Amino acid sequence: NQFCDAGIGYRESTCGISPSSSSSKLLIKGGTVVNAHQQEIADVYVEDGVIVAVKPNIKVGDDVTLLDATGKYIMPGGIDPHTHLAMEFMGTETIDDFFSGQAAALAGGTTMHIDFVIPVNGSLVAGFEAYERKAKKSCMDYGFHMAITKWDESVSREMEIMVNEKGINSFKFFMAYKGSLMINDELLLQGLKRCKSLGALAMVHAENGDAVFEGQKRMIELGITGPEGHALSRPAVLEGEATARAIRLARFVNTPLYVVHVMSIDAMEEIAKARKSGQKVIGEPVVSGLVLDDSGLWDPDFITAAKYVMSPPIRESGHDKALQAALSTGVLQLVGTDHCVFNSTQKAFGIDDFRKIPNGVNGIEERMHLVWDTMVESGQISVTDYVRITSTEWIFNLYPRKGAILAGSDADIIIFNPNSSFEIRASSHHSRTDTNVFDGRKGKGKVEVTIAGGRVVWQDDELKVVPGSGKYIEMPPFSYLFNGIDKADAKYLSSLQAPVGRFNSAS
Ligand SMILES: NC(=O)NCCC(=O)O
Ligand SMILES: [Zn+2]
Ligand SMILES: [Zn+2]
Question: Any idea which residues bear N6-carboxylysine here (predicted)?
Fold first, then answer.
């Protein structure tokens, strides 16, 4: 058992972990170790990329690198559940690829991300192979979700291959982007059914794409062609409608649902209602939606305004605070970024027409700091909650390999100084893009050290990353969200027996 309660002396014999003689060994001393359910003062010993022991007063030899964490938190590296690196989208490709985006992530304390594979001409296998190639330069661990953009027998078969052979356990359905990625309700229903049978999590981009299309036409007819037209054309009511529709279809199929980038009160309230009724719905806010409002979209400078264009749009002030409250009360469960960046030249494709501005904002480097400052520093959540919503993702079946400081877990670790501070600057961030939607933000707390796969990759504000060192992490199906689904199905079927019996005896 790789996850046994390890101590230094036992490591070969008890756990079967056989360190090589040239192993990299680290001891993090004196910090407060934080997991999703508890915190304790302890040392953490790492060998060959794996946490070997978590206990007080660990003694080691001279060949071990020491890191002092006195007065600081030792936490699992962040897992960003929503990114788009090297994604071809809206006639261009995101400026961050699997190396630059991951380097930025590591500088901000994120040590794993889950990216969305886009099928090639509808083929999931071809899409997966293309993303395998893109990810070869990875410098940190990553997993994949898969988008479903069309429906036929071959897609249905390929979904099974993705789950059973490729380690994908989640599929995203875009209810918006009419004419490119958008699917209709018929496809969504088929997809939900297939996800259920495979134990895969269905994810939705929830906006009514037909109504958005109509809203965009309306703006252009009114002569509103600038970035503000983006927000005006796709109001929160359209996000609420699609969220409600997806939730109801998932209830009809009786399968869990994950709503990505929840940006509005309208969508959040639909999720709250469904969860209250017992439905398994996960809501993911993204850091831009949690900490920004839409005022930037009205900036008279096109490039400044265009950098905020993403979908669903960043909403008016008030939605941000409501999403924070929902996160703190458990209505929403984890925070992503939707990191999908285009530089100013790419954003300028839409200088005369907001519909051509590539959609997407940054966040992969900023998420850990901004969530700390906004949620923990403000007193809305505890430090253990912080770990749960930024890293411990039971939903994707990664725990306890990832998202935990436990013996046997991967050594993806941050040392976080709550008494230090951070400042975000487009001029000094590590992403390749030339703008930053959080430019100028300052706050408390700082990721001082990032350890990925047992290697110190960020220390003293310096990155030491190696292309090709990141690993693809397979994620098995049937997470805890599927517990009880079969029993609910059986109950539903037996509830049908009574009316069927009545009909039979009458005829
Ligand atoms: N969100 C966004 O604007 N771009 C990325 C694609 C998506 O997630 O919808
Ligand atoms: Zn989306
Ligand atoms: Zn996205």
Answer: 172
Could you give the dihedral angle defined by the CA atoms of residues 445, 40, 396 and 134, in that order, rounded to the nearest 10 degrees? 50
Sequence ranges of the domains in the chain: 76-455+473-481
Mutation test residue for ligand 1: of 83, 84, 170, the one with most atoms within 8 Å of CB: 84
Protein fold of 76-455+473-481: TIM Barrel (3.20.20)
Tens place of pLDDT per residue across the chain (507 aa) = 222 222 232 222 222 223 333 449 999 999 999 999 999 999 999 999 999 999 999 999 999 999 999 999 999 999 999 999 999 999 999 999 999 999 999 999 999 999 999 999 999 999 999 999 999 999 999 999 999 999 999 999 999 999 999 999 999 999 999 999 999 999 999 999 999 999 999 999 999 999 999 999 999 999 999 999 999 999 999 999 999 999 999 999 999 999 999 999 999 999 999 999 999 999 999 999 999 999 999 999 999 999 999 999 999 999 999 999 999 999 999 999 999 999 999 999 999 999 999 999 999 999 999 999 999 999 999 999 999 999 987 999 999 999 999 999 999 999 999 999 999 999 999 999 999 999 999 999 999 999 999 999 999 999 999 999 999 999 999 999 999 999 999 998 998 887 767 766 554
CA distance 2 to 52: 10
362 close to ligand 1 (CB < 6 Angstrom): no
DSSP helix/strand/coil, 108: coil
**Is the C-beta atom of 175 inside 6 A of ligand 1?**
no
Q: Give exposure, 415-424, as e/b (b: 16+ Cβ within 10 Å).
A: bbbbeeebeb
Query: How far away, in angstroms, is 390 Cα from ligand 1 center?
Result: 20
The answer to whether residues 408 and 51 touch, using CB atoms and an 8 Å cutoff, is yes
Q: Is the CB of 310 under 6 A from ligand 1?
A: yes
The structure's pTM equals 0.94
CA angle 374, 377, 382 (to 5 degrees): 100
DSSP 264: S
Indicate if ligand 1 lies below 6 Å from the C-beta of 141: no
Q: Which among 250, 248, 319 has a CA at the least distance from the CA of 285?
A: 319
* Cα distances (angstroms) measured from residue 276 to each of 33, 252, 262, 269, 331: 33, 17, 17, 10, 9
Interface predicted TM-score (ipTM): 0.99
CA atoms within 13 A on the CB side of 337: 35
